[in-house]
Specification:
The protein is α/β, with parallel strands linked by helices. It has three domains: 158 residues, 3-Layer(bba) Sandwich (FAD/NAD(P)-binding domain); 126 residues, 3-Layer(bba) Sandwich (FAD/NAD(P)-binding domain), CATH 3.50.50; 107 residues, 2-Layer Sandwich (Enolase-like, domain 1), CATH 3.30.390. The protein is built from eleven helices and 25 strands. It is globular and about 70 Å long. Belongs to the class-III pyridine nucleotide-disulfide oxidoreductase family.
Length: 444
């Protein structure tokens, strides 16, 4: 028997455990997590807080008993105090203070990410919340449910910030949305798309403060005001959604790290210690758009990395296919999807790109009923002409189109190969001169 210890049991750790338990009967699997629950889909928190779904039960997709039924030993509410890498021993402490040691043949680190929390004055006041764990979602929902909470400040206009701002507004609160950047969603979309989202937010009553850095929280015990570059604002509650960084404390002194502190892994999810693998948000991942290792914290990437690590630990050599960082968001019916690099991201990473834009109705003009405009941008490398990114927006559901672009990036498809690609036409769905074809044909 080979004994594998997995530290962390959310998406990446669960994927690794399932891969080992379902495919490798010679594996003894031990799972350790400091939380009281596992498999929480944090991306659904805003849907629950905004009452767009009935409750949070469906946001959990597995439980401790499922893994015990497969033969795993699983410790919840258990912290890892330290790891002795030379002796291959994990030193643990349970909630009741009981200490124990688990030895391992192979170790998988799936410790995830942690919210970025600037230590500005007043950061420790009551009423300042984060959104990562289920318990944090519960706390935010409980606060928003109070009649005394009328004005909510959301710090950070990335995906989580924009989604929770919508949720708070749906619950009847005044919402102030702050970001040091000059627009929302700058990590995923170019200005052509974020201008549309910024207007969407404002049209629905969100008070946006872009290019406005929050510098201080005020209050005696509980926060009652925030101070930003533009002035001081009275608030009843703060939700911090600035972003996430890798939670790589346990092995930072033993393993080779990426520039942002994540564990540096190879295409097999193996770290600089051959008996230690790292998966999910605590580790790097290979970007097919950049053609190098980078850091992209997404649940979908976490699952894939866990599967790859599980097979490699189990004895089946498997190289990760790489990712594009595909993602999407839907706010008050405005749908944005993207994959790979935006023009902004390409410039930031030193990739010389060109892009082609197109805008048209989803379906022919004679179609009655829902038929909204679609905007598309395809980004391609100037020298090789390979596609490295795409963005789409519409009030139609155009989400499936981004999967094709994800595959195009992974397979190094050029913008020229896309020009005469066989894309079907039927008036119920699209136009004869499809916006994908038209964008490709109009490329330089």
């Amino acid at each position: 028997m080979t004994k594998t210890v997995i530290i962390g049991t959310n998406h990446a750790g669960i994927a690794a455990a399932n891969t080992l338990l379902d495919n490798y009967p010679d594996q003894e699997v031990v799972m350790i997590d400091r939380n009281s629950n596992l498999s929480y889909l944090g991306c659904g928190t805003a849907l629950w807080v905004g009452r767009q779904i009935d409750d949070y039960q469906g946001l959990f997709y597995t439980n401790k008993a499922d893994f015990e039924a497969k033969g795993a030993k699983i410790y919840m509410e258990t912290s890892v105090d330290r790891i002795d890498f030379s002796e291959k021993k994990v030193h643990c402490v349970q909630k009741d203070g009981k200490a124990f040691i688990e030895s391992y043949d192979k170790l998988i680190l799936a410790t995830g990410s942690r919210p970025i929390a600037p230590k500005v004055p007043g950061h420790d006041l009551d009423g300042i919340h984060f959104l990562k764990l289920f318990q944090e979602g519960q706390a935010v929902d409980a606060e928003i449910s109070k009649d005394s909470v009328k004005k909510v400040a959301v710090i950070g206009a990335g995906y989580i910030g924009v989604e929770i701002a919508e949720a708070a507004k749906r619950r009847g609160k005044e919402v102030l949305l702050f970001d040091a950047a000059d627009r929302s969603l700058p990590s995923y979309y170019d200005k052509w798309f974020t201008d549309e989202m910024d207007k969407n937010l404002a049209d629905h009553g969100i008070e946006t403060h872009f290019g406005d850095l929050v510098k201080e929280y005020k209050g005696s015990d509980r926060v009652n005001a925030i101070v930003a570059d533009s002035g001081e604002y009275q608030v009843d509650m703060v939700i911090n959604a600035i972003g996430f960084g890798p939670n790589a404390e346990l092995a930072k002194d033993h393993l080779e790290l990426f520039q942002n502190g994540a564990y540096l892994v190879d295409r097999h999810q193996q770290t600089s210690d051959p008996d230690v693998y790292a998966v999910g948000d605590c580790a790097t991942i290979y970007s097919n758009a950049l053609e190098k290792m980078t850091y992209i914290a997404l649940a979908s990437n976490a699952v894939r990395s866990g599967i790859v690590a599980g097979h490699n630990v189990g004895g089946t050599p498997l190289e990760a296919a790489g990712v594009q960082g595909s993602n999407g968001i839907s706010i008050w019916g405005l749908n944005l999807v993207s994959t790979g690099l935006s023009v902004t991201a390409a410039e930031k990473n030193g990739v010389d790109v060109k892009y082609t834009d197109f805008e048209d109705l989803q379906k022919p003009g004679f179609i009655k009923g829902e038929n909204d405009t679609v905007k598309i941008r395809i980004v391609y490398e100037a020298s090789s002409r390979r596609i490295v990114g795409a963005q789409l927006s519409s009030r139609e559901d155009i989400s499936m189109g981004i999967h094709m672009f994800s595959l195009a990036i992974a397979k190094h498809v050029t913008i020229d190969e896309l020009k005469l690609l066989d894309i079907f036409f039927l008036p119920h769905f699209n136009q004869p001169y499809n916006y994908i074809t038209m964008a490709a044909l109009s490329a330089e």
